Amino acid sequence: MTGRRLPVDGLGAYLHCPRQYEFAHVHGLAGDDEEAVETRQVELLRTVICDALRTGETEPRPLANAAIARLAERWPERDDRFHSMAQRRHERRALEATIRAYVEAVGPTHARGVTQLRNAADGDVIGPALSLSATVSLPDAGEDENAAVTVDATVDYVFEDGPSITGVRFVPTLAPLGPLRYRSKWDGDVAELFVDHFDPDADRFEPDAVASLLETAVVLEGLRDLRDRLELEASTCRYVLAPLADRSNDAVDWVRETVETSLEVVDLTDVFLDHHTFGLTHEHRNRTVERRLREVLAAIVPGEFDPGPAWDRISARSCPGCAYAVGCADHVAAEVRFDG
Ligand code: SF4
Q1: CA of 333 to the centre of ligand 1 (A)
Q2: Ligand 1: does its nearest atom lie under 6 Å from the Cβ of 167?
Q3: pTM for this structure?
Q4: For the chain, what are the domain ranges?
Q5: In this structure, are strands 148-161 and 164-171 parallel, antiparallel, or unpaired?
Q6: Rounded CA separation 250/131 (Å)
Q7: What atom of ligand 1 comes closest to residue 329's alpha carbon?
Q8: pLDDT digit string (tens) for 63-120?
Q9: What sign for the dihedral angle of Cα 75, 76, 82, 88?
Q10: Which residue lies with its CA nearest to atom 5 of ligand 1?
């Protein structure tokens, strides 16, 4: 970590395994790049959708046409190695279908909200990758202003949504959310999942879902900062994820050469906020998640990267798919012990 700053995805790496965080974010070692194609697809689509939002179009067809026209301009830059021209044409049709699905699901509502916000406030609200940050005080910091860490995150655009401003981030899929995707409140399953993940006596290991809640805390704090800079202090803040590389809903007609798909966005605000903290602050906050965020950062700052008491869960769940397994002394030592 440099200058007490870290990217929000470092939290997810740390939750999967502190040693993984050390390899990626302290030593800067690149892992396996298996998701590169998916990542490039999201990068291209997030750019063309943001460009379409910037046109000010708010009706479905013109908005979709603006994004698809922009895709046509950018498409020649895409240099992925496709097996054939037919596959290349299919990939483009799949991206166009994703644009249409985005427009059908939320596009016009979000576009109107973006336009309202641009008219009401003086500031950039369309990305892609608008920077947000949250400065988090470490536990027991007292008056020590240096005992704080800035966590950097991004959203792709922000729109006005009734009493709220909402940050939207495009992601490949919603799969990492796990059960959060199907829940609408913090109390119950979600609170249990979160607490159990950190309980050394519980067998639960949910790094992706927990990381999403920590990320929500960071993004909402960053949005509150943006809201204040835009002089919209009366608004609350919300955080939405929109998947752009989820092929599970694709319907492909290979004879007619058509692709149709659908897209579902998830608002993480409702599973994040706890009503007690909301009652006290009138902000979308969660005291349990925010306290845990401070504790995780307090472990990262001094370099506590030993997998420690979570080793059994890490070795069973994180090591098998870890990009650093070949050079990882913890993993290799455990394998040797096992073989011996
Ligand atoms: S191989 Fe296992 S212990 Fe090593 S960094 Fe990866 S997850 Fe952590």
Answers
A1: 11
A2: no
A3: 0.92
A4: 5-339
A5: antiparallel
A6: 32
A7: 4
A8: 999 999 999 999 888 777 777 888 888 889 999 999 999 999 999 999 999 999 998 8
A9: positive
A10: 20
